[in-house]
């Protein structure tokens, strides 16, 4: 029974526990009281604390009711016990951020402000609380209000990131499904006919062995040639499955950046016809890693890829307008892996952190004499 009990939901982390530290001040204030007043204040504080916990586990109308009861307790504790108990609003303010609907959030934040302001006004004009006390206290009211908006904004951003992750997972699943269907079609179209031909020739060979050995020998050679052709087709299929061209990767990058809300501009021709697929595949993986870092870490709003080709060299520059790359990320496994991949094809990786981050991939291209004459 006790093993399953949680004071606060695990997904909320340590934040709710940190908030409990601020509960010490009202408790210390209540300790200065005597008799029934102390008992009543302790009881009200205990109820307030229980409601604070319950708010993490309820939704809908029940959530609204608990917030309303907490606001009433805040007023009672502020007027009856001590003016500084208005600081209990620091417990209520973060809970208002859970309202996703803008209209509902506006209503509840308005009710919260009205409650605090009325309590302050009553103490000022009817209980004659020292103005100096409120000079130090009232600014915290604005902090409470700002906290509700800030935490709500953070939650919405976190929710959008989760939705983006789920959308990417769905896209990945659809791509895998489409790839499986493509492989099935390719196998049927390429190997289906070849294997049928081998089967027919094998049946014919079986009949000709005793009747016409010379022709049977020729059929055996044909079967060998056909099987070699089938093996070559399989190798070609596997090669196509394992490689991604730069042009294909640019399309994937555009989709990823659009999903992340980052504008994208491509300059230059990504086709790279005379660059081997093996080299293009390595460059594509490096481009994917660089753009993934932009989405995860850069906090950028714009990304640009410039592809330039000169005699014997291809340069791909990936830049963003984010906050610049951090030193630990430069030395991290991702960029280290990019350098290791590029070293396989004598490529180079350079990184600049000026007005964002700029990743430059340089790839040497060895051309034959005929290509040089054509100016390719």
Automatic annotation (TrEMBL):
GO terms for molecular function: phosphorelay sensor kinase activity; protein dimerization activity. It is an enzyme of class 2 (transferase). Residues 285-365 form the Histidine kinase/HSP90-like ATPase domain. Residues 1-144 form the DesK/YvfT N-terminal domain. It catalyses: ATP + protein L-histidine = ADP + protein N-phospho-L-histidine. The chain crosses the membrane at residues 14-32, 39-55, 67-93, 105-127, 133-151. Keywords: Kinase, Membrane, Transferase, Transmembrane, Transmembrane helix, Two-component regulatory system. One of its GO terms (cellular component) is membrane. InterPro entries: DesK/YvfT_N, HATPase_C_sf, HATPase_dom, Sensor_HK_TwoCompSys, Sig_transdc_His_kin_sub3_dim/P. Residues 179-244 form the Signal transduction histidine kinase subgroup 3 dimerisation and phosphoacceptor domain. SUPFAM superfamilies: ATPase domain of HSP90 chaperone/DNA topoisomerase II/histidine kinase. Pfam families: DesK_N, HATPase_c, HisKA_3. Its EC number is 2.7.13.3. This is histidine kinase. The lineage of its organism: Bacteria, Bacillati, Bacillota, Bacilli, Bacillales.
């Amino acid at each position: 029974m006790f093993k399953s009990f949680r004071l606060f939901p695990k997904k909320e982390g340590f934040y709710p526990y940190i908030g409990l530290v601020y509960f010490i001040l009202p408790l210390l204030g209540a300790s200065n009281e005597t008799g029934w007043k102390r008992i009543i204040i302790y009881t009200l504080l205990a109820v307030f604390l229980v409601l604070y916990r319950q708010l993490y586990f309820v939704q809908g109308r029940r959530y609204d009711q608990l917030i309303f009861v907490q606001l009433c307790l805040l007023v009672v504790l502020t007027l009856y016990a001590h003016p500084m108990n208005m600081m209990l609003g620091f417990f209520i303010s973060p809970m208002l951020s859970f309202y996703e609907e803008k209209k509902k959030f506006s209503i509840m934040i308005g009710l919260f402000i009205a409650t605090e302001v009325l309590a302050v006004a009553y103490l000022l004009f009817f209980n004659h609380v020292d103005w100096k006390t409120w000079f130090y206290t009232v600014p915290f009211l604005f902090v409470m209000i700002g906290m509700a908006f800030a935490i709500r904004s953070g939650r919405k951003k976190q929710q959008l990131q989760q939705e983006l992750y789920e959308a990417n997972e769905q896209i990945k699943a659809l791509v895998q499904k489409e790839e499986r269907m493509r492989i099935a079609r390719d196998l049927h179209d390429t190997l289906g006919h070849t294997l049928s031909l081998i089967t027919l020739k094998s049946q014919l060979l079986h009949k000709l062995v005793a009747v016409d050995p010379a022709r049977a020998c020729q059929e055996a050679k044909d079967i060998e040639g056909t099987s070699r052709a089938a093996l070559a087709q399989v190798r070609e299929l596997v090669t196509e499955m394992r490689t991604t061209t730069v042009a294909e990767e640019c399309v994937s990058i555009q989709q990823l950046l659009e999903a992340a809300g980052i504008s994208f501009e491509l300059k230059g021709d990504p086709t790279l016809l005379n660059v081997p697929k093996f080299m293009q595949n390595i460059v594509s993986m490096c481009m994917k890693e660089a753009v993934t870092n932009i989405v995860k870490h850069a906090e950028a709003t714009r990304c640009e890829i410039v592809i330039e080709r000169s005699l014997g060299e291809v340069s791909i520059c990936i830049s963003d307008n984010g906050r610049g790359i951090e030193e630990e990320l430069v030395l991290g496994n991702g960029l280290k892996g990019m350098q290791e991949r590029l070293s396989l094809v004598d490529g180079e990786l350079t990184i600049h952190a000026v007005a964002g981050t700029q990743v430059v991939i340089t790839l040497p291209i060895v051309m034959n004499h005929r290509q040089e004459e054509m100016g390719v």
